[in-house]
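quick one, four chains, predict together pls
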Amino acid sequence: MRIGELSERTDTPRRLLRYYEEQGLIISERCTNGYRSYDEPMVDRVLQVRGLLDAGLPTRIIKQILPCLDKPRAIHFPDATPEMISTLELERDRMTTRIGCLTRNRNAVSEYLDAVLTLRDAGER
Amino acid sequence: MRIGELSERTDTPRRLLRYYEEQGLIISERCTNGYRSYDEPMVDRVLQVRGLLDAGLPTRIIKQILPCLDKPRAIHFPDATPEMISTLELERDRMTTRIGCLTRNRNAVSEYLDAVLTLRDAGER
DNA sequence: TCGAACCATCACATCGATGTGAAGGTCAAG
DNA sequence: CTTGACCTTCACATCGATGTGATGGTTCGA
């Protein structure tokens, strides 16, 4: 598919698809006329990238962890340098911290909403 | 305490403490000489703000959800406008989505690391 | 063949979070 | 009284993600 369809299916501006490519997050084939061409799995790939970006990870980190998320993973083992491993460990821990922080605060917001809505329902009866 | 101590204890640049105040995320008393003065709980408050920022929430959202996270919460019920409630519901759902995305990818990274380290340990023996 | 709807690259603008430095006030210790 | 370590405000710079528009090529249907 071309960039327009990918854009619609991932609800992502064309501009950003080109930007992600520039950052090495996604790749594209090129037709003879120079148009970008994407295969089907690219839809999920883009959605994953967007999710990670929305979760607060910068592109340069996403670029590093994406190769670990492909299957089969075995083929990626050889190129795991010690430096990259420690980067991943650090980022894994940072993600865990984020998850904890987000979960705590999400629960707090949720509890607040439950309380408010319960009161409101009781009040309008 | 003054801004320098708060900065050290929260590992946050003074510049950002002033910025958070400007954005309405934290408040400060003023000494007679104009210096900002913070009370003890502000340390946790700042850490919470930083956590939320790091988790990808923008200051304007943090500003909205922070009042819900204070205790006792009861006193905040009256000022819960319908519009604010729907904002909170939206944000709660967005946080849940983020948590899911982060968790999936954190687990994937984690599994990858486990596999790599297991192989490495096996190999060096 | 012409116009609409794609696509390309490039450049500049914006926005939020953050860095940095200037210019100056306050205060305690030497 | 001066020096140094704080503090103030203000402004401009940077950085990553994103918006927007200019300029021009390709394809397809009326």
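Residues 68 and 80 of chain B are 10 Å apart (CA to CA).
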